[in-house]
Write a structure and sequence with these properties.
heterotrimer; A alpha/beta (435); B mainly alpha (302); C mainly alpha (336); B: 302 residues; mainly alpha; MetI-like fold; C: mainly alpha; two-stranded antiparallel sheet; flat
């Protein structure tokens, strides 16, 4: 009796096992063209597009392209966050295979990727000449002139503010007046902090959300903050601007107490949207959705067409074509199509990703786009305005290490109450230890 | 105090005697514990279950409410089905991910148990050259941090052409050093030499001995190892993410996609978490008794 | 296939026994082969698979550690031990070590104590045994990402649940993400939540195997429940306790997921308050520097540290858990 039972179990296990293993071996997805072994039977190819967050590409868009290009099937692979996508891409580049035909990248990855441009195809072509804003193209071009990415979206910034909190402080509430308050097209950071002092003096509440975010806005306007573009040397400690900006921000945060002392994206920061935690923040287009989500039920948010220092850009993505792919020509074509003004406008309508294409910025859809949550502000026009005159800072291989170090120092001062001078010394130590 | 072990009794005197021995060995004669014990246990279970309950609270609410109040309510709201529906209908490939997770988890847990018991039997009871050294080597390998193993492992998978296929997730999980160590340790004390000798004397081959003596004796530990391996495989995220991606995902990879936007809808994400935990909880409820019985089949140290 | 009860040991068979003589020769050779080869055969699946998925990465990492190796740039010059030297003078490495040990102690020690006590409680003759015993494993079922999201809300510095509760009893808010020790406590709590039930079940299985007679003898000798626990239970489950201590040590020094998800950036805090060594390895290899070589060097240093601590814990546990009852005599291995 026991023998039979045991044998029966063994048999069942064996059969199930074989069945499962068979399924496992065959259940790769139907178009797993991960890299070299792409299916290319008689002209039929599959292109994989790897994106993250929300690029705004829909299946309808892909279907349209497939209809116009018979023999091409498109598959989109999505990563939830840009960090995960970056890990994925780096692993596959390091291993030498496995990248998708089109890989989306973020502007922050470029300083590093531009050091190894051989991983990517040169995408320069007369067909796309002049399609994008100059500074956007510049971000993805190597010193030798090789273009490794077609721009998708950008993050021009305005100032998002709480009109109701401004009113309580006796400040103007209409967005044009607020723009004037900050200085209009000649707005400066000093002016920004002055408004902050007025607000905090009147209400006793914090003005902006996070000191490190403000610093980010400032340093992104510096042409060469940490490294010398010609020689590549680290100049972070010699550049007086760096110490200046650091002190400006830490004074505003700690001494004048203009900061709400949050680290962006932390739970505290998220929760503070509901508790009137701060009145103002630097807002690129994609941040508007975040504010709306976090501040659900709160009324009074608006967007002003002004930015200290004139213009600032935070974020933005590109589509690249890794050279290890099997269908680079077809991939280039698809990438060019996806980043054409028409498609980018469609993506904007879908997910709010703000276009980087010149024609798109001039289009009716952008010019007339408004955002109900932000008091029906003409966000399209505002952000298009703010996209003019962006300075592309030079970012070399050490840029982000230095930036992280100073950002950490600022967070320690702002959030954890550390001593600014001591934190500056730690920052200096990190920079000196480089290389 | 060398009472014969239950498997030994089963071998020599049959199943009935074994059951009797186990019953008397069991703690049936001990007095029932009092309310202090039960209060302690209830407290422990409440503590353990509270985060999941919290997840369910969030999952049954909606984004706006959660934004306004980190603890939306003490009792679940009504949105869970709606959120769950959104998760299932979204383009994260939920059902495919569920199927994949089941396949991977079942295969790896069965395989881990089988191979670990084989190796454990060898290390614990068989004598061969290099035994101690190899065993120490096995244990030492668990001390190696795995974070960097991703790149070489990925290279191996790429060479074999397994990228994007489930087998790339299964093969690294087929046998674990922990499992080998665990079975070795257990069989060391739970499998008396008399049984093996008896079988060998009867002319049983090694494989027969393994199948008929070692496996049954190892059953408690094997069940537990299988359970741990199953759950571990089910919740594994990073390697499947790197090697499978979003088109052929396992459940944690697919659910991660719910976070794919700048603003994270907590109620949706938590719905995904709850949906992912449900199959395991069902497994616990349905197979719980067998699992516990299997684990607790006290093989007494002889 | 049940063997008959009393089988004379081989070799004691009388020469003129009525039983037909065994066939000697080939089958006996086969039998001897069986014994010699089987052990290696049985451990080979493990080693084969392990060679592919475990050993190769191990060797690769060792090779990488002596080179200047950029993740994207590829193999550079031979660097000898300069990667190791660099790492030892990096403040972040030492911070990582400090954090790792602190979190390890804060998580492993309470965890094991709770697991032992809980296992002892579950060992009793409970009603609804299955419910209680499966119940402790529930935290293990929830994905680490979810646990972090949930605990993040509890341990938020300003708006978290923990600080609200502390406020109710009149304690000032604690900087869970700002100060060193509180952040360790928070991370350790997350780790304990996930793994206590797991260890409880392992210890419970061992406790179930303790023969009743021992307890009865102790009761007759007048031992209280507590005395029974320390003098009977613990020594009897000593091998399992050793096993649990070793695996917890190895796992505890490699904690990665929980501290990584403790905040959005994953760096272990602006001042590296809770960055563990495995996080440091990850940052070196995949972070801004992408120095694969240095990351590999740290990985090997950690490996050696874990080995050392593991052995120390093994020795410690043996001493602590030993007791007056004589150790089980090891079975003599039967020679063939």
């Amino acid at each position: 009796m026991r023998k039979t039972t045991r044998k029966a179990w063994a048999l069942a296990a064996g059969v199930t096992g074989i069945a499962l293993v068979a399924t496992a071996c065959s259940s790769s997805d139907d178009a797993g063209t991960d890299g070299d072994d792409a299916t290319a039977d008689g002209g039929n190819i599959t292109l994989t597009v790897a994106t993250f967050n929300e690029f705004g590409y829909t299946d309808e868009m892909f279907d349209r392209y497939e209809a116009e290009h018979p023999g091409v099937t498109i598959e989109q692979k999505v990563a939830a966050t840009s960090n995960e996508a970056r890990e994925n891409l780096n692993t596959r580049l390091a291993a030498g295979s496995g990248t998708a035909d089109i890989e989306a990248i973020e502007v922050d990855w470029l300083p590093e990727l531009l050091l190894y441009p051989d991983y990517f195809e040169d995408l320069s072509s007369p067909d796309v000449e002049g399609r994008w804003l100059d500074w956007k193209v510049e971000q993805a071009t190597t010193p030798d002139g090789k273009l490794i990415g077609y721009g998708t979206d950008i993050g021009p910034e305005g100032i998002a503010y709480r009109a109701d909190l401004f009113e309580a402080a006796g400040l103007p509430t209409d967005r044009d007046e607020v723009a004037e308050l900050f200085g209009g097209d000649d707005a400066t950071w000093e002016g920004f902090f002055e408004v902050g002092k007025t607000y905090t003096a009147a209400t006793g509440k914090p003005f902006f959300d996070s000191a490190s975010a403000i610093y980010q806005g400032m340093v992104n306007q510096e042409e060469a903050a940490y490294e010398d573009p010609e020689t590549g040397d680290v100049i972070a400690l010699d550049n007086p601007r760096v110490k200046e900006m650091y002190e400006q921000v830490t004074t505003a945060a700690a001494t004048d107490n203009l900061s709400a002392h949050f680290s962006q994206w932390s739970d505290d920061w998220t929760n503070s949207f509901q508790t009137d935690g701060f009145a103002v923040m630097l807002a690129p287009g994609w941040m508007l959705g975040v504010i709306e989500g976090n501040a659900a039920g709160v009324e009074g948010w608006d967007l002003a067409d002004v930015f200290p220092g004139g213009a600032g850009n935070w974020g933005g993505s590109f589509l690249t074509v890794p050279e290890q792919g099997a269908n680079v020509e077809a991939a280039k074509e698809l990438a060019a199509w996806l980043t054409a003004p028409e498609q980018q406008i469609e993506a904007f309508t879908n997910k709010g990703t703000f276009p980087s294409q010149v024609e798109a910025l001039d289009s009716d859809e952008i010019k007339s786009a408004t955002n109900e949550f932000f008091n029906n502000a003409p966000v399209g026009a505002i952000l298009a305005n703010r996209a003019q005159g962006v300075v592309v800072p030079f970012k070399g291989p050490q840029y982000f290490t230095i930036q992280d170090a100073i950002s950490n120092a600022i967070v320690e001062v702002d959030v954890n109450g550390a001593d600014p001078a001591a934190q500056w010394d730690s920052f200096v130590q990190v920079v000196q230890g480089l290389g | 105090m060398s009472a014969p072990s239950v498997p030994y009794i089963r071998q020599t005197a049959g199943a009935g005697a074994a059951r009797a021995a186990q019953r008397s060995r069991g703690h049936g004669s001990e007095r029932r514990p009092g309310w202090v014990t039960y209060s302690l246990l209830t407290l422990a279970i409440l503590v353990f279950a509270s985060p999941i309950y919290y997840a369910f609270l969030l999952a049954s609410s909606d984004a706006a409410t959660i934004a306004q109040n980190p603890i939306p309510s003490l009792i679940p709201q009504s949105n869970f089905l709606e959120n769950a529906g959104k998760v299932l209908a979204s383009d994260i490939n939920f059902w495919k991910a569920l199927t994949n997770s089941v396949i991977v988890a079942v295969i790896t847990s069965v395989s881990v148990v089988l191979f670990s018991t084989l190796a454990g039997f060898s290390f614990a009871k068989l004598r061969f050259r290099g035994r101690t050294g190899l065993l120490l080597f096995v244990i030492a390998t668990t001390a190696v941090p795995t974070q960097l193993g991703i790149v070489p492992l990925f290279i191996v998978m790429a060479e074999l052409g397994w990228l994007g296929k489930l087998i790339a997730v299964i093969v690294p999980g087929l046998v674990t050093a922990f499992g080998v160590f665990w079975m070795t340790q257990y069989l060391e004390s739970a499998l008396p030499y008399e049984l093996i000798e008896a079988a060998r004397v009867d002319g049983a081959s090694m494989i027969r001995t393994f199948w008929s003596i070692a496996l049954p004796a190892a059953r408690p530990a094997a069940v537990m190892l299988g359970l741990f391996a199953f759950v571990g495989s089910w919740t594994n995220f990073f390697w499947p993410f790197i090697v499978l991606g979003s088109t052929n995902p396992t459940l944690p990879v697919a659910l991660q996609l719910l976070q794919a936007s700048y603003f994270k809808d907590m109620s949706l994400i938590m719905s995904g978490v709850v949906l992912s935990a449900i199959p395991l909880l069902i497994l616990f409820v349905v197979a719980g008794r067998q699992l516990v019985a299997g684990i607790m089949a006290g093989a007494v140290k002889g | 296939m049940a063997t008959s009860t009393t089988q004379p040991r081989a070799g004691r068979q009388l020469p003129d026994s009525p039983r037909p003589p065994r066939r000697v020769g080939f089958s006996q050779t086969l039998g001897r082969w069986d014994v010699k080869v089987s052990p290696y055969l049985y451990i080979s699946p493990f080693f084969l698979l392990f060679g592919l998925t475990g050993l190769f990465p191990l060797a690769y990492t060792a090779y990488v550690s002596v080179y200047d190796w950029h993740l994207l740039g590829g193999q550079g010059d031979f660097a000898g031990f300069s990667n190791f030297a660099f790492v030892f003078q990096e403040p972040n490495f030492w911070k990582g070590l400090r954090n790792t040990f602190s979190i390890f102690l804060l998580s492993t020690i309470p965890q094991l104590m709770v697991a032992v006590v809980l296992a002892a409680v579950l060992d009793a003759n409970l009603r609804a045994k299955t419910f209680w015993r499966m119940g402790v494993l529930v935290p293990y079922v929830v994905a680490p990402v979810a646990v972090s999201l949930i605990f993040g809300k509890i341990f938020a510095d300003q708006s978290g649940l923990a600080n609200s509760l502390l406020g109710v009893i009149g304690i000032d808010p604690i900087k869970w993400h700002g100060a060193v020790l509180p952040s360790h406590i928070a991370v350790a709590t997350m780790v304990n939540f996930r793994w206590t039930g797991y260890n409880t079940l392992i210890l419970l299985a061992a406790m179930q195997a303790v023969p009743r007679e021992l307890y009865e003898a102790a009761v007759i000798d007048g031992a209280s429940r507590l005395r029974q626990f320390f003098s009977v239970t613990i020594p009897q489950i000593r091998p399992t306790v050793i096993f649990v201590v070793i695996t917890s040590t190895i796992g505890g020094l490699q904690i990665f997921d929980e501290p990584r998800l403790f905040d959005q950036l994953g760096q272990g805090g602006p001042g590296r308050q809770w960055m563990t060594v495995t996080m440091y390895i990850y940052e070196l290899g995949f972070g801004n520097q992408k120095s694969f070589g240095r990351a590999a060097a740290v990985a090997w240093v950690l490996f050696l540290i874990i080995l050392a601590v593991g052995m120390l814990n093994f020795w410690l546990t043996r001493r602590i858990a030993s007791d007056a009852t004589p150790k089980e005599a090891r079975r003599k291995k039967v020679k063939r």
